Amino acid sequence: LSATNSLQSHKRDENPTGSTQSEAFSKKAVTAGTAIPLSPPLTLYNPIRGMRTPPVQHKSNQTLSTTPPHPDTFNPMKPILILSAIPEEIQDFLSHFTNTQTQTHGPFTTHHTQSDTTPLILSTTGVGKVSAAMTTQHLIERHQPRAILFTGLAGALNPNYEIGDLVIATRTIQYDIDASELGFPPGTIPYTPYHTFTPDPHLLAHAQAITLPQTIHHGTILTGDQFITHQKRPAYQHLFDHFQGDAIEMEGAALAHVCTHNQTPHLLIRTISDKANADAPTDFTTFLHTASQNSFQLIQTLLRTLP
User: pTM value?
Assistant: First the structure.
C-alpha cells in the first residue's frame, strides 16, 4: 500500500549500502559495516533531531549479508507466494487464474493455483507493518514457499519517477524506527543486526533483465506506518536527507525483515501511484486497477524466466 502522495527530492545515487544480517544476534547494532556499542555517550548525533555530538563508533571488518544463499530458491516443488496489502492490488492475478482453490486458516485466506508448472499461492497481508509481518510469518511457516513476491502501490519520493512506473526494490528500510538516542543509527532495529534489507540476488537479477512498455526503476523503497502528504513534509525531511529513498509505502521492509529472518527469498515490486500534489488520495484510489495490471505483467514475465 502506498504511504505517500509523494514528496519531491533530488535524484540520488543508487549504490545501496547498509547493515545486513549476521549469523547470530550480537549485542551490537550494525550498519554499513559499523558497530555501535550499546553504551554510547548520552549526547548523540542524530540527523533527524539535529543533535551535534557523534557517538563513539568502532569499525567492523566483517561485511554482513541480509540475503544468505538459500538452497530452495529455485526448488520447483515449492510454491511461490504472491502477496499484496489489499485484494485490489492483485486483482488481475485473481481474475487471470480461474482454476483456483481458496483455503481459509483462521483469519488467513489463500488462493492456490498454478502458472504452467509453478505452484502459486495468492494472498493479502493487510495494511501496515504489523499486519504484513504477521501474515508473512504465518504463510512461511504453513507453506514453506520457495520465494515471496510482494507487490502493490507506492508513492514517489524520487522526482524522476512518474505515475505508472514500476519500481523493483534493490533495498528496503523501515524509516520510522529511530533509537538513535541509544546509539543505534536511524532505521536500525535495536539489539539486532537489521537495518537495510536486500532481495534475493537471483530473483533481482531475473527481474532486472525484464523489459516492458512501462518504465522500470531499481531503487530504495522506504516503509513506515504513515500515509505521508505534502503538508507533512517538514516532519519527514529526513526521508530525503538521510535515507535517500526513491519510493515509500507501508509494508515492504516489514515483509523483507520476516523473509530475511526466515532465510526465505523475496522480491518487492511496486507501481508508483501518486506524486506530491493535492490529488494523492484520489490518485491512489483510482490507480489500483492499473497497478494490478502493471504488477501482473511484470510478475508473469518473471515467473516465465525462473528455472
Answer: 0.75
